[in-house]
Amino acid sequence: MNIKKHWFLILLSLVSSMLSYSQQLSCSLVVKGNITLSDSSNTDLSSASVYIRQINRQIQVESNGDFIVRNLCPGRFEFRISYVGYKSIDTTLTVRDNTAFGFVLINQTQLLSDITITSRILKKNELTVEVKDTLGGLAIEETRGLSLGESLKNIAGVNSLQSGPNISKPIIHGVYSNRILIVNNGVRQEGQTWGNDHAPEIDPFIATKFSVIKGPASIRYGSDAIGGVVLVDPADMPRTPGVDGNVNLVAMTNGRVGVGSAMIEQAFGDKLEGLSWRLQGTLRKAGNARAADYYLGNTGFNEDDYSATMQYNKAHYGLQLYYSMFNTRIGIATASVVGSIGDLYAAFTRSQPIDTAGFTYNIVRPYQTVNHQLFKTSGYIDLSKNLGRIEGTYAYQRDVRKEYDADVSFNDSMNANNIPDLNFQLNTQTVDLAWEHPAIKNKIVGSIGFNFITHSNIEQGTSYQQLIPNFLDYGGGIYAIEKFQTRKWIFEGGIRYDYRWLQAYALDPTNPTIEIKPIYNWQNATVNLGAEYKFSDHFYTMYNFGTAWRPPQVIELFANGIHQSAAAFEIGDSSLTLEKAYNNNLSFLFGGEKFSFEVGFYVNYFHHYIYLKPDSLPVQTIQGAFPAFTYTQVNALFEGLDLNITYDITKHLRLVSKTSIVRARNETTNEWLINIPADRYDNSIRYHWDSTGKWKSFFIGFGNLAVSRQTRVPPNSDYVAPPPGYDLWGMEAGCSIHFYKRYIDINLIVTNLTNVSYRDYLNRFRYYMDDLGRNISLRIMVPF
Description:
Structural class: mainly beta
Strand content: over 45%
Radius of gyration: 26 Å
Distance between the termini: 22 Å
Helix content: under 10%
Largest sheet: 22 strands, antiparallel, barrel
Number of helices: 7
Mean pLDDT: 85
């Protein structure tokens, strides 16, 4: 996006915000629905469940299957329709005016001869009694242009681990990195995820819904899903013949960010009925970000992402092909580049970096580049009434990460060819098979599955030390999941067994010319038990217990060098053993017409928890001075709660309050753990008013994010003490404009409204510089 276009979007944002202040809006839409059963017309359906995620509301259903949802704002809403013995319906509906929908629930034992199965059905063999929060509809639209890690921070219990202003990855209940699995369009994302600076290689624009499963989800997704799972789900492929699509434009003042994303899709009819395709692409560009009082040198980024999907589905079988490519180049803040240990300690004490950068889009050394490609083919077949269904997925991923040090090589030819200091190529293949068996006595449903995964890593950099050795690994797991539902109870259980094998090709640190080939193998079982009880149509509770385990990663075993983009010297320990977790989650959910809440408590014990511990002294190398960290293993106990409250003060005024609290102790040394999120309180209030003419869905809101200082750390356990807590104010305004039988969605969001100077404890670069200052974001979504 060129500079003229960028400033045009900023000007448009100011105009739209002025217009939105002058209008009034009300959320008064009514949705009527009816539930019918495919094999019965006289059943009492008053015990059927209708749940709407965005408003956290359980809807009363009449005995004839009718239900009414009142006081909705225009937008997209996720409905879950369920009834004992029948396949649940999970769907996203767009509500623009008063409307009505009909839902037909299919008996578990019936052949699906009268419906078209979409790719969403491929995800049904997962546990449903779990702590799961979803970001979709208007909520996800208001995060467009942000990274995946930043987008997920809107969910209570989810934080972000950062390295500078543009690199973040999700933290769930205090744990992160390889303990969090990200499932991208039905495939577990595999990339260079071992570093704090390695953000997920995913374009958030591909998704219409982000779901976060808090706690163990190891049965369906893998034994290493210790902390939780992030599901990145695209919209279902189109079924109605015709061409559809949308264009998203985003402009942000901080970093002068410009984002453009477009999607086009088509479904065919007549002889090609069941065939559909989708193309999508995104461009993002940013220059130097700005703290409250100064620019952050070399913090720009460039990104271009593409994806394509082809699908052919009929009543009893279906096939989908999917390809995506993610490309980015990210500058690493020059404030993290330090020559000597004395300079490093001086940098720790400065209120702002010595580098007085201005604004530029240029990205210079140090920086990193990432190219991630994913190819997936998936399909299903309904065998017969008595044999159930088989679903399968094969995926290949290639992830290439290059890191460039601040200092160029002494070799002129290497400089001319721009050869990186670190160069990793990770190739991953996964196979997933699942058999969904027919319902047993119309009460017990479940599936049996198999997973296979293999990685091969090639390191070709020119760094003096070997950070990640070449390696080859493979693993496999088998699992079974069963669910039993009565009128008020749902019981679920799962068991899984996994085997992992690893061979690393590492250098002997005492003699770099000698290569050693250590071999590791691990195996273990995991279990998951869950129960849900429905006190009433508005109030229910869930309890989940699960075990999980993961082997130590290659970097945790063998690291011995400079991690360029994290500005750190990391040291592994080849004697580390597998990490096991025992997780307990208890949640209460209430959804009324005016008041709703969700509160979750968790107690998670980790045996041989692995974390990156700061050493007592930095390391001086020929490339500069770096803070040193060693991978360490202890027993740890995590406890906490997540609270989400929604209260309609009046018909037009809504209050939303989110609280996240985590406590984590090192049980081995009887002291607090480092790098645990501080207490977080997020409160916002939004006012809606009636539409006027072609202008609809007006809203204006204000919010406050209060983050406490993290005082629960061992004394002198880090190079820099935890920073003070902070309060950030923000505002938002938005509307939909009728244009050629469509609605253009516009929203304006201001973060850090008062331009506060602050540093976040979970930002590794807090050692050197402040976090982002004020940012004004304009988002425009044009459907066609």
